[in-house]
Write a structure and sequence with these properties.
elongated; single chain; 6 helices; 112 residues; mainly alpha
Length: 112
């Protein structure tokens, strides 16, 4: 992992999320105010809803998922059970990009 410093503290990240979830401000207005990408803010909200404040802390390593979890998540997506964010919440997947990688490998005939 790189040794980059966080641009925002945990408290600032929580404040951003609360502005969207509790104060009913738009993702667009909050992301513009903090000069943060909308996708980044959405990912932080997802991690906060999934893992709480701990989900906003910098990870110390890779999270491992069982093959059964990966296949179930991919099948749910391919069978249109839910969208990427919903599936990530259901299976506690750290990010939609992780799910997209699994989908790409699975549909390409590669092991996930």
């Amino acid at each position: 992992m790189s040794k980059r410093t966080a641009k925002y503290t945990i408290e600032e990240k929580v404040d951003m999320i609360h502005q969207v979830l509790s104060d009913h401000q738009s993702i667009h207005s909050v992301s513009n105010y903090y000069r943060l990408g909308k996708h980044t803010l959405k990912e932080r909200i997802h991690r906060y809803e999934t893992a709480g404040v701990d989900g906003l802390k910098a990870s110390r390593g890779w999270k491992h998922y069982s093959e059964a979890t990966k296949i179930s998540a991919v099948n749910d997506y391919l069978n249109q059970v839910d969208g990427q964010v919903g599936i990530c919440r259901k299976y506690q997947i750290s990010s939609t990009s992780v799910l997209r990688q699994w989908i790409s490998k699975y549909t390409g005939g590669k092991p996930i």
